[in-house]
Amino acid sequence: MTVDAEYPIADPPALRIQKNDRLNIQVSAKSLELAAPFNVVAGAYKLTEDGVSTTSVDKSGTSPGYLIDQNGNIEFPVLGILHVEGLTLNEVRDLIRNRLIKNRYISDPVVKVEMLNFKITVMGAVKSESVLTVPDGRMSLLEALTKVGGLSTNASPDRITVIREENGVRRRIVTNIQTQEVFNSPAYYLQQNDIVYVEPRTADISPKEDRFWKYFGIGMGFIGFLMSTIAVIK
């Protein structure tokens, strides 16, 4: 990687929903009564000729969200079965919003959709193997490596593999974080359920190399953070 070189900033790919993902979906409107049937966190509701009838209430105040089943569907209150696999969070938002308007349930709904179980597994030659939870659904490969303490002394930075599931198929993406190509790699921005495996080296590492890889990992993590921040601002 060349010092003081310029590297193009790629936009992160849209997060697409997969089977076994879990979504938090909230519907709001000017009238709380109109929005209530579509928010399971507030309890279970049903529509009657006289209006809204409460049938049960979740006293814990929490909701496990909507689990995407093996057919790629969720069962949404009132609207029924919705196929959401392969859609982005914004596309799910628009799907629900349009259905609410089309069926004349709510004329001006505001729909919020979030991913609840975006997780990344990092293992192999790293300081601390871990499963990372990503609340905002956005993390780069370099950020993930930094969060687990960086590479260990016997890591192979040119042999970092991301195992990814797409359309029911697993594929391996091997990335070299020592070159600028890491920024163009499809593995640079991680996706939900990705597994990051850092291949170890068998040769012994000298103290000088140990210090180099320690600071290299910290530096790459900082670069990754800056790139992600710039992409958000952009």
Automatic annotation (TrEMBL):
PANTHER family: POLYSACCHARIDE EXPORT PROTEIN GFCE-RELATED. This is Sugar transporter. The lineage of its organism: Bacteria, Pseudomonadati, Bacteroidota, Flavobacteriia, Flavobacteriales. The chain crosses the membrane at residues 212-233. GO terms for molecular function: polysaccharide transmembrane transporter activity; porin activity. It is found in: Cell outer membrane. Belongs to the BexD/CtrA/VexA family. It is a multi-pass membrane protein. Residues 119-198 form the SLBB domain. GO terms for cellular component: cell outer membrane; pore complex. Residues 11-115 form the Polysaccharide export protein N-terminal domain. Gene3D superfamilies: Outer membrane lipoprotein wza domain like. GO terms for biological process: monoatomic ion transport. It holds the Pfam family SLBB_2. It comes from Elizabethkingia argenteiflava. Keywords: Cell outer membrane, Ion transport, Lipoprotein, Membrane, Palmitate, Polysaccharide transport, Porin, Signal, Sugar transport, Transmembrane, Transmembrane beta strand, Transmembrane helix, Transport.
